[in-house]
Amino acid sequence: MAERRKLETILTANKLVSEEQLKQIVSYAHAVGIDLCEAVLQKKIASPDAVMMAYAESVGLPFAHLADLSVDEEVAAQVEPMTARQHSFVPVSVDHGYVLLATTKPVIPDVVDELRIIFNLPVRCVICTPSELSAAIAQYYPRGAVRVTKAEPKVEPEAKRVKVPPVQQSAEEKMQPLEPMSEEDKKDRLWKTVAAFNFTVASVAFASLYLPPSWKLGLSFSMFLMLGAIVGSVTALITWRLSSR
Q: How far is it, in rounded angstroms, from Cα 37 to Cα 53?
């Protein structure tokens, strides 16, 4: 099997760039942190078609124009728009037992595995020009788009439906809130809890002042305040739990 040629070799062999231009492009690519293919495209030294053909050969993938492939909208709709935009690819078709992806560079293995699971088929990539891919992504995966082609639940005829008895909730489950409390509800719960505590402490304190001596059982005012704090804490806890339902 012949060894795959590097992009630099292909570019110079096909006379797309000169040796001097290649040195300048390599330096530019290193300086701005991009790969050689993107640097050649940015410098516009050769046509995008020629550059991408050379790149496709260097990575061992075929080159094609998206206009010649005819994207199947139903196939494209099976992929999350965010995934397609983030990894720069468009599923073109499902044919001959595999999924064909149009991209400007090989898709990373993790995404390929994800697509293999979605389609239950192997995945193959084809290289196209960046402008073609950008136009296709804008068409099939516009910003803000979400995948809408989800399998609808199958509705069985009434006679075939199996009636499932309702699940009985435990007492603990019934005590749990059905949904998170709003900030307003949380503030209201806190206010009720503090009010319950203060009211209880104040009630015990006032009671100690007006109770007959025989009813005070020898307790001082400070001891009544301590008792009020204990009872108030219990009242506050009950109020907190009831307000959390």
A: 11
Convert the pLDDT of each residue in 145-171 to its tens digit. 665 444 343 344 444 343 434 444 444
Nearest to 54 by CA among 69, 71, 39: 39
Owner of token pair 């983030």: 86
Q: What is the identity of the amino acid at 165?
A: P
Task: Return the half-sphere exposure (C-beta side, CA atoms, 13 A cut-off) of residue 9.
Answer: 7
**pTM greater than 0.85:** no
Say which DSSP state 125 is in: E
The model's pLDDT over 216-227, given as tens digits with 9 standing for 90+, comes to 666 777 776 787
Tokens describing residue 74? 């139903």
Distance CA 197, CA 201 (A): 6
* 183-210 vs 221-243: helix crossing angle, rounded to 10: 150
